[in-house]
């Protein structure tokens, strides 16, 4: 039986259990838009294609399935690229579909041409996806879609891209069905016995958890390993959600937003640093000095690209599926949960400049937020000082409830992520932690949440500036340029203009009241928090040099 290409695609979405698809329409992809409605799949109209890519990624993360983002040809496709980059960092299987005016007319002058003769979307998506191809004939769809799905789900998962011209979408081809390949055998390391020996021999180890530990959902595994061997735990900025912050073996975060106690322990003569899911980038190791260098490193990672490249100590890499290999480590060693006494009281890093008495500190704001949020609430941190204040001050009661990028780091990405995630987990409160700078990047996606009835809580710290840039530049060079808004954004008024509920808070009581109202409202709510513009954020270990 023959069917049109656009029908086959939408049938696959339906069979995969996809309930929502994200995008902004255009002529070259209009057949897909119309067919989505015919199959009862909700088309979430974003306000910018980048936001749509973030939303599809949040949906994939929360629902544990494929996310779908669709953009038209030319600039509609290029606008999706940040979303693909973010999906790649979070190892999320997201299918990005872009258009092309016509395959048969390719080579002639075309408006919004996406081929090799103009803005070649296939090449532009290659660095930010695991697979990128142009479907130049309808009969190639089966093979190219199979390639895309296998790449998206094999090993370290990630986004894929298909550019499908309008006339190819309209072609009739033989019907077929490809299930999501979500049961591919994990990549197994043959070196688990070496990992067991290294841990057994260690006298003063540390367990360093990165964002990959969150992406691989290793919460139970790392707890068993920590408790069985009594290993102190440190988290990178992106790894904060991997471990309960009130666990007796937790030392705190390291790097931006890290704790003083974790830093001191790292300097105390570590003989084995067990790294789980961290590429050890400059953000993760911000402030790392020679006296923190461990004698050996044991690194659990999917890919060799960055393993053993940052810390020069001898490194044993356990390559492959992180969760599976940790499970094998537990089985081979007979590891089990054990009770432990608290290593030390949790230490907060004091700001180097005291806030003004009349101003609200970011730390107080996040402690107020934590006080009223249920433990299962899921937090998405955006790019900026606000998230590092959260890393330092927001307690993680239930692992797997805090997500923060540490490499691609797109401003405003958390706004879209939280919207898609709330669709994927409607039963759980979802909070976007963001700032006024990020709001001016992608804050219009709040209108998407309002129009589709998605009750996300947007917790916005407003200090009238690009705080991380302004404070870092000032601290390191004595001045800053272009980082302070002469007329700051009125966040609550901006939110009201899009139909969201909005509250402006200047103290802890107002924050708690606003969060409680937001939890009860079942509506998109923006909570603007007016914080001290002079407060020094915990980011100054990331030095700027103009030498």
TrEMBL record:
Keyword Protease attributed: no
Residue ranges of every copy of the Thiamine pyrophosphate enzyme N-terminal TPP-binding domain listed in the record: 5-114
Cofactor(s), names only, from the UniProt record: thiamine diphosphate
Keywords: Thiamine pyrophosphate
Domain of life per record: Bacteria
Domain Thiamine pyrophosphate enzyme central: 192-329
Domain Thiamine pyrophosphate enzyme TPP-binding: 382-529
Any single Pfam family the record assigns to this protein: TPP_enzyme_C
Family: Belongs to the TPP enzyme family.
Protein name: Thiamine pyrophosphate-binding protein
């Amino acid at each position: 039986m023959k069917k049109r290409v656009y029908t086959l695609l939408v049938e696959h979405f339906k069979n995969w259990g996809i309930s929502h698809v994200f995008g902004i329409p255009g002529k070259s992809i209009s057949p897909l838009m119309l067919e989505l409605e015919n199959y009862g799949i909700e088309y979430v109209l974003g306000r910018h294609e980048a936001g749509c890519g973030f939303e599809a990624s949040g949906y994939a993360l929360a629902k544990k399935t494929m996310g779908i983002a669709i953009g038209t040809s030319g600039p509609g496709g290029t606008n999706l690229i940040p979303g693909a980059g973010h999906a790649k960092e979070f190892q999320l299987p997201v299918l990005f579909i872009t258009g092309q005016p016509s395959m048969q007319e390719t080579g002639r002058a075309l408006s919004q041409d996406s081929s090799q003769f103009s803005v070649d979307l296939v090449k532009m998506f290659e660095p930010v996806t695991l697979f990128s191809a142009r479907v130049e004939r309808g009969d190639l769809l089966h093979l190219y879609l199979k390639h895309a799905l296998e790449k998206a789900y094999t090993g370290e998962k990630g986004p894929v891209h298909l550019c499908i011209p309008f006339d190819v979408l309209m072609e009739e081809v033989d019907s077929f069905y490809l299930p999501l390949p979500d049961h591919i055998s994990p990549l197994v390391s043959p070196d688990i016995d070496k990992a067991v020996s290294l841990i057994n021999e260690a006298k003063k180890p540390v367990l360093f958890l990165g964002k990959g530990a969150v992406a691989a959902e290793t919460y139970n595994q790392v707890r068993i390993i920590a408790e069985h061997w009594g290993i102190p735990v440190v988290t990178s900025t992106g790894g904060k959600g991997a471990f309960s912050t009130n666990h007796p073996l937790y030392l705190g975060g390291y790097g931006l937003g890290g704790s003083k106690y974790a830093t001191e322990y790292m300097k105390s003569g570590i003989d084995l640093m067990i790294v789980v899911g961290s590429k050890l980038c400059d953000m993760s190791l911000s402030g790392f000095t020679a006296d923190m260098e461990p004698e050996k490193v044991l690194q659990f990672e999917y890919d060799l690209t960055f393993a053993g490249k940052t810390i020069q100590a001898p490194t044993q890499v356990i390559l492959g599926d992180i969760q599976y290999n940790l499970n094998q480590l537990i089985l081979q060693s007979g590891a089990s949960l054990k009770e432990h006494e608290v290593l030390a009281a949790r230490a907060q890093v004091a700001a180097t400049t005291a806030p003004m008495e009349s101003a609200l500190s970011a730390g107080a704001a996040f402690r107020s937020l934590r006080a009223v949020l249920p433990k299962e609430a899921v937090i998405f941190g955006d790019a900026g000082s606000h998230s590092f204040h959260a890393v330092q001050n927001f307690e993680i009661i239930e692992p797997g409830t805090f997500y923060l990028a540490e490499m691609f780091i797109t401003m405003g990405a958390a706004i879209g992520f939280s919207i898609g995630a709330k669709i994927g987990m409607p039963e759980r409160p979802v909070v976007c932690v963001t700032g006024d700078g990020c709001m001016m990047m992608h804050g219009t996606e709040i209108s998407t949440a309002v129009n589709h009835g998605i009750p996300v809580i947007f917790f916005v710290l407003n200090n009238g500036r690009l705080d991380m840039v302004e404070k870092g530049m000032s601290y390191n060079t004595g001045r800053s340029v272009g980082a302070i808004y002469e007329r700051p954004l009125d966040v609550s008024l901006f939110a009201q203009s899009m139909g969201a509920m909005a509250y402006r808070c200047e103290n802890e009581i107002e924050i708690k009241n606003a969060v409680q109202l937001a939890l009860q409202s079942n509506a998109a709510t923006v909570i603007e928090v007016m914080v001290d513009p002079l407060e020094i954020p915990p980011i100054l270990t990331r030095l700027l040099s103009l030498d």
